[in-house]
Amino acid sequence: MRKDALDLPGFAGLLLFTVVLAGNQLVMKTTSTGLSPVFQAGLRSLFACLVILVWMLARRISFGSLRRDLWPGIAMGTAFTLEFIGLYNALDMTTVARASIIFYTMPMHLSLAAHFLIPGERLTPVKVVGLIFAFLGVVIVLADRPGGEASLTGDLLAWMGAVGWAAIALTVRITRISEAPPEAQQLWQLSFSAVALLLVAPLFGPLVRDFGPEHVWLMGYQVFLVASFGFLGWFYLMKRYPASTVASFSFLTPVLAVFMGWAILGEELHRSVLLALAFVSAGILLINRKTR
Known about the structure:
By secondary structure, this protein is mainly α. It is built from 12 helices and no strands. Helices cover 75% and strands 0% of the residues.
């Protein structure tokens, strides 16, 4: 049953998903001490694909139409592959704070593309202000080069990840794959990227680094809490509650990721990072704001 407003269970579910997603940035970076970033991303897609496949078979969920979904599915899978080549390598090269701030400018890219490609999705004055805020946040991050783990290449790869993420959302909006169940859409992304990422992983250096038992648990976090059941929970929330309300929670993810990086990984909270975070978070809220 769809609800018109967010209730306590919905709020708790969204908050939990946001915390899990923010923690995922730290988990991905930490897992890179044992597995190379692209190999790690490929394994995540492979195991999450198997989980989703079993889930769909057990619940008899439709796989959609192959004729209708083939090319959009390939497009989504390609964008998903590029998204995670960008994000995983970004987290290996730069800080969680910088990568998260840049990566979560995705709504900025999506809103700009939707303005030109989707009828009825024109930019409003409020969204334009949001775009400006988000862009300023990225400019501040890129302009500040404190050294250490502040890799410009890593920052730009996070930007690539954001564009890939926006391309996935845009494909769903402008093609008939939107008629497929969310699980089927997720399966297209995971199955295509599992093959593609594992094939190209050797091009990015040794597959295994200093691998230990802890990395098995870290991969389990990514596979079960994020890539499979986490996103199934997200789709459920999107169906049950107003989409604009659910989407507005996305501003919390970079906020939590930045402070988790500081509290758990010992990353420095430069004033430029905090200022950029404020701009990007405000931009996300304005872009996702429902206007009459």
